[in-house]
Amino acid sequence: MDLDPRRRRSTYVATAGGGDYIITIALYDGESVFTYIRGDNLNDFRDDVHKYKLLVTYNGKSFDLPFIRSYLGIPADHAHIDLRFVLASLGYRGGLKGCEKQFGLDREELDGVDGFFAVLLWWDYQRHGNDKALQTLLAYNVLDVLNLETLMVRAYNLKLADTPFEKARRLSESQPAESPFVADMRTVERLKLGRPVCRDLDDRGI
């Protein structure tokens, strides 16, 4: 039986929510990144997710999949690996961002941006038409799924470490896809300071 998640039509899924509705979903199948946005193409996720046999999430058992099932009305009954529990069994805890840091994964300019901040970015986009806020939100959500693949491979290898199959089944880490979105740090810093969007934002360098 081939357990390599990269050869089982697997996909990494991360969801951002705004209270009782889904804002965005990011999906990464090891080669391509797909994003789904409320009010745009969110319903396309219904058909696209059925192309895959295995879903990989972090805390998806408690959050992402129940949210998707309820909001989109789809079964999402795929085989599922929730890395929250896999990593916890290996001694890694502290949420997705905490686990990333323990494995040396650097979010660089998006360090400190979390689920609550994702909602602030969405509100900034919705209320002020700030496209850079949406781009930043998507960059954050996509980074979740890109890092999930690295965590999946490392957790898999750690589970194999004390078995007779380590050498034969060990996975090498592949280079993640490049995110198609770039975070706008002026928007991030402005929202951290609680400032509203300004027409002369770029001129003022905020």
User: How many strands, what sense, and barrel or not for the largest sheet?
Assistant: 5 strands, mixed
Order of helices and strands: EEEHEHEHHHHHHH
Provide the helix percentage. Answer: 40-55%
Top CATH class: Alpha Beta
- CATH architecture heading: 2-Layer Sandwich
Give the class from helix and strand content and strand pairing. alpha/beta
Output the CATH topology: Nucleotidyltransferase, domain 5
**Any idea what the radius of gyration is?**
18 Å
- Ends apart, CA distance between termini: 55 Å
Low-confidence stretches: 199-206
Bin the strand percentage: 5-15%
Any overview of this molecule?
The N and C termini lie far apart (55 Å). The chain has helices spanning 44-48, 60-72, 83-89, 95-102, 115-128, 131-160, 166-169, 185-192, 201-204; strands spanning 10-17, 22-28, 33-37, 54-57, 79-82. Strands 3-2-1-4-5 form a 5-stranded mixed sheet, with helices on both faces. With 206 residues, the chain is an alpha/beta fold. It is built from 9 helices and 5 strands; from the N terminus they run βββαβαβααααααα.
Features:
alpha/beta, 5-stranded mixed beta sheet, Nucleotidyltransferase, domain 5, disordered C terminus, globular, 206 residues
List the helices and strands and how they pair.
Blueprint lengths: L9 E8 L4 E7 L4 E5 L6 H5 L5 E4 L2 H13 L6 E4 H7 L5 H8 L12 H14 L2 H30 L5 H4 L15 H8 L8 H4 L2
Parallel strand pairs: 1-4, 4-5
Antiparallel strand pairs: 1-2, 2-3
Helix pairs in contact: 5-6
